[in-house]
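Input for the complex:
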Amino acid sequence: MALYVHKYGGTSVGTVERIEAVADKLKKFKDDGHDLVVVLSAMSGETNRLIGLAQQINKQPDPREMDVLVSTGEQVTIALLCMALARRGLPARSYTGAQVRITTDSMHGKARIQEIDTERMRADLDAGRIVVVAGFQGADATGNITTLGRGGSDTTGVALAAALKADECQIYTDVDGVYTTDPRVVDSARRLETITFEEMLEMASLGSKVLQIRSVEFAGKYKVPLRVLSSFTDGPGTLITTEEDNTVEKPVISGIAFNRDEAKLTIQGVPDVPGVASRILGPISAANIEVDMILQNISEDQKTDFTFSVHRNDFAKAEGILQQIMAELGARSVVGDNKIAKVSIVGVGMRSHAGVASKMFDALAKEGINIQMISTSEIKVSIVMAEKYLELAVRALHSAFDLDASDTVSEA
Ligand code: ASP
Ligand code: MG
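Predicted:
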């Protein structure tokens, strides 16, 4: 008998029928003798609908009132699920974040969890009840309702699992696990049996949107075994775990992530003297523009080119800032390209294998893909190239690193 924390996302509780299906699933776990704490999102689209209502009144509504408003979506689903459970003869109780006493700081709209009182949940579990908690919300020390940021129910799930020392936190969603890459781009993408927290963090920050990044950080920090699985089909999903627990022999590369929303800017012919990087990037960061890769060439004649990449939405703004800096620094010109994409290979296996980057470059060269920028970390190699080659690059790397499903059974 285990204690599980289950989290169901918006599509999994999007209609009354879906909520009934969740209740059926929970009944099976209960019949097997497990204890359950269930975290729910709002019905899909509901949080956006609530935000839309607020926007009709005020484009910049008060953050405190905003949290009172958007936290209601989850209050609806928890109550409905408890009713569905009761009809199946399963005693259950719903709680808002404040009722559990999930205490957060007072940063409305992006609050961080500080403490979780497990007493009430424990008492219910001991009495044989299923505990159903509203995701995405808490209350600050003075009782104001707070929310944890979009997608925050994942973090609620993981946080409750950590506080209750649950055997596993299971995130039920509309995909059946974490894939080697996006199956819409590569047909032969495979579901991973396991992935480490570190790899998952890289994949998530590179745009693979299965889990909220904060929830993965949280799970890694408290070593909460985390599983992503489908609420619509049966299957083992993907277990996110620590490297040490991961005894299965794994390939060097676990996954390939990519991102189309990139743009790069170069300021050419800047004087090669101390302080230039800071004079270029200072105003960029002051404008709240996040810089990803940075590249500086070796100088010729005390002049150098300075290149960096940003999110495509920030391209025009960054270009404007650089035009101004160009004049101040006496640089030659500013050039930019907002039709680039980034591809990254991710795997903890890189730590113990040499030649991973050169294998990547080789695979890209064979396809005639020109690499524009490169950056590396301990478990990741990223490259930037023209956007039109993105799909080709992902497919080439997927097969070069032996990630293609070879053991799939097909009728064709
Ligand atoms: N309902 C919230 C959102 O849509 C929280 C969540 O679903 O995790 O962002
Ligand atoms: Mg969600």
